[in-house]
Amino acid sequence: MSIFERADVKLLPDFKRRFVEINGKHVLALVGGKGPALLMLHGDPQTHLCWHHIAPNLTDRFTVVLTDIRGRGETHKPAYIESQNAYTKREMAVEQVAVMRALGSETFSLVGHDRGARIARRLVLDHPEVVTQLVIMDMIPALDFYENTNAQIAQEYFYFSFLTQDYPVPDKLIAGDPETFIKLILFGLSDQIVRYDKLALEAYLIASTTADAITAMCECFRAGYHIDRLHDAVDREAGNKITCPTLVMWGEHGVVGKHFNVRCVWEGWCDQPEFAIMPSGHFIPEEAPDAALAALNGFLTHPKY
């Protein structure tokens, strides 16, 4: 049994693992519970395991789906191709919609943290008919992020500039000591200690330090700078906004909360935003799972189907 399977057995024992084939490629999905569908998308540099404190407490009301997003965990990892990027949030969102349809859900609630929140936001903007309600955790859209980056943000979120450099510069530099780099992210975005489950942390490090996973992460950030923010600019110019009920969370001890006017940013993108500040840094699902679950329970009580 692999480290990933062992972690699922320990941390998500009531969820069933399955690989969903989309266009000949495999996406890992864990499914548990009953009721309306709820898709939860993890962030970097993690896997679906980041939801292990929260997801089991939602299965009494929802059929909860936890995927490994493209390029992470056990999901397929497209390689670098010159003049083409498989990690635009638009393309990754299409894949998640296809996964949910393959699982029998044409509409669903959607929760995303970090990188998963970027996919979730793009999914709602491009496919508004499929999402009934949206939760965003500790994320500023690409256009707003790069427009408002200053020296201090560049210091604390250094990899938003480093990882966007041309292939294979960051890919090869990270390969020299990938575990140290990944730990910089996992432990460097809060002013308090992040207490990860030991098995989950081991899985994160193993999953994110292979050569294909490193390039996937770099490509995802390169897509953010070179492509995703341009998609955002088109939406802003056209006045496109998120129309479904939306809850935005951020950590009071994290970089996002310290350096961005989160309310102002998301009021510019959403018709119906609600806000919740979490007693955490960036990694809300594992730093403040009780507070996050309480906010989710309040917000997701009355899904509109």
CATH architecture: 3-Layer(aba) Sandwich
Can you identify the CATH class? Alpha Beta
Query: CATH topology, what is it called?
Result: Rossmann fold
Uncertain residue segments: none
Description:
With 305 residues, the protein is α/β, with parallel strands linked by helices. It has one domain: Alpha/Beta hydrolase fold, catalytic domain (Rossmann fold). It is built from 14 helices and eight strands. It has helices at 3-11, 89-102, 115-126, 142-147, 151-156, 159-162, 169-175, 178-187, 198-208, 211-238, 255-259, 262-267, 284-287, 289-299; strands at residues 16-22, 25-33, 37-41, 63-67, 108-113, 131-137, 246-251, 273-278. Strands 1-2-4-3-5-6-7-8 form an eight-stranded mixed beta sheet, sandwiched between helices. Helix 3 links the parallel strand 5 (108-113) and strand 6. The longest helix is centred in the last third of the chain and has 28 residues, at 211-238. The model has no long low-confidence stretch (mean pLDDT 96).
Keywords:
single chain, alpha/beta, Rossmann fold, 14 helices, 17% strand
Per-chain topology:
Blueprint: H1 3-11, E1 16-22, E2 25-33, E3 37-41, E4 63-67, H2 89-102, E5 108-113, H3 115-126, E6 131-137, H4 142-147, H5 151-156, H6 159-162, H7 169-175, H8 178-187, H9 198-208, H10 211-238, E7 246-251, H11 255-259, H12 262-267, E8 273-278, H13 284-287, H14 289-299
Parallel strand pairs: 3-4, 3-5, 5-6, 6-7, 7-8
Antiparallel strand pairs: 1-2, 2-4
Helix pairs in contact: 1-9, 2-3, 7-10
